[in-house]
UniProtKB/TrEMBL annotation:
Source organism: Vreelandella arcis
InterPro entries, A to Z: RlmJ, SAM-dependent_MTases_sf
SUPFAM superfamilies registered for this protein in UniProt: S-adenosyl-L-methionine-dependent methyltransferases
Binding residue positions for S-adenosyl-L-methionine: 19, 42, 103, 121, 145-146, 166
Protein name stated in the entry: Ribosomal RNA large subunit methyltransferase J
EC code(s) of this entry: 2.1.1.266
Gene name in the database record: rlmJ
A molecular function GO annotation: RNA binding
Length: 281
């Protein structure tokens, strides 16, 4: 079953949370010269025109990137300023927000000589969209199952590796599959920096992933959650966005906390942010 299309959700608050965390992590990785291999296991389309029929159907970006972009002039947090400046480079007119970039685009902005990004996409139509995007030469787009193939790609030929795992969780089994894959991946690449996104839904399915990781033996798992509103069992839909970062760069927590302090008031009165060590060192 592959019915999920990210274009319906592009630029929503979860994308902002995910891509800010990714962006800050990339910034730390860029501070050292040793090359990095990037693997994006669930790449999506790469770039989403906000005017498309799919994105206009739900207009989720209006509760995500839009209020932040509108407030650009009053933003002082350095991470948010850098992120917004990079986002403006994805626009035809840098002053107008018409496109929202996905993870392969964000990672491609960080690529240096001798570095590669492998972006996996299983949905044939989504893969075709990704293939049609203009992205730097170091980006290799693969039509295939990124989760299944991840461990075969590890270890990588470069000294460092950074992985983004961003499933749609259409199937509940995906929470288990992600946890099982992480155990195998960490056994093959102990120092890998791995970012995992998960949705916060009233049914609380993400707890299976968190619990499995807590008993996996993997250490240094940092958790970051952006809540748009309080969890309410009577309401449908995602109330928050979660990110786990295994082996997070030092200082990531403080940088994101600063950015979130300016972002959350823009997302509504109930919005709040929380981060902690899910599994410490
Ligand atoms: N990472 C993207 C971003 O941040 O812009 C969004 C990805 S979206 C949440 C999930 C994508 O994964 C969908 O395009 C879906 O078709 C794709 N997908 C689902 N299962 C997959 C798998 N096993 N391997 C690769 N892609 C998969």
């Amino acid at each position: 079953m592959l019915s999920y299309q990210h274009a319906y959700h592009a630029g929503n608050f979860a994308d902002v949370h995910k891509h800010l965390t990714l962006f800050a992590t990339l910034d730390y990785l860029l501070r050292k010269p040793s090359p990095v291999t990037y693997i994006d296991t669930h790449a999506g389309r790469g770039l989403y025109p906000l005017s498309s029929d799919e994105t206009q159907r739900l207009q989720e970006y209006r509760d995500g990137v839009w209020p932040l972009w509108q407030a650009s002039a009053s933003i002082s947090d350095p991470l948010l300023c850098d992120w917004l400046a990079t986002l403006s480079r994805a626009q035809r007119d840098p002053a107008e927000l018409t496109h929202y970039p996905g993870s392969p685009w964000w990672i491609s902005q960080a690529l240096r000589a001798k570095e590669r990004l492998y972006g996996f996409e299983l949905h044939p139509g989504e893969h075709q969209h990704l293939d049609d995007q203009l992205l730097p030469a170091g980006v290799e787009r693969v039509h295939g199952d990124g989760l299944a193939v991840l461990c075969q790609r590890l270890p990588v030929p470069t000294p460092r590796v950074c992985v983004l795992i961003d499933p749609s969780y259409e199937r509940k089994d995906e929470y288990w599959e992600v946890a099982a894959t992480l155990s195998l991946a960490m056994a093959k690449a102990r120092h890998a920096v791995i970012l995992i996104w998960y949705p916060l839904l009233p049914a609380g399915h993400h707890q299976a992933l968190l619990d499995a990781l807590a008993s996996s033996g993997i250490r240094k798992i940092w958790r970051s959650e952006l809540h748009l509103r309080a969890a309410d069992a009577h309401e449908r839909g995602m109330y928050g966005s979660g990110m786990l970062v295994i082996n997070p760069p030092w200082g990531l927590d403080e940088r994101l906390a600063g950015a979130m302090a300016q972002l959350t008031p823009l997302l509504g009165a109930q919005s709040h942010y929380h981060a902690d060590w899910w599994v410490p060192e």
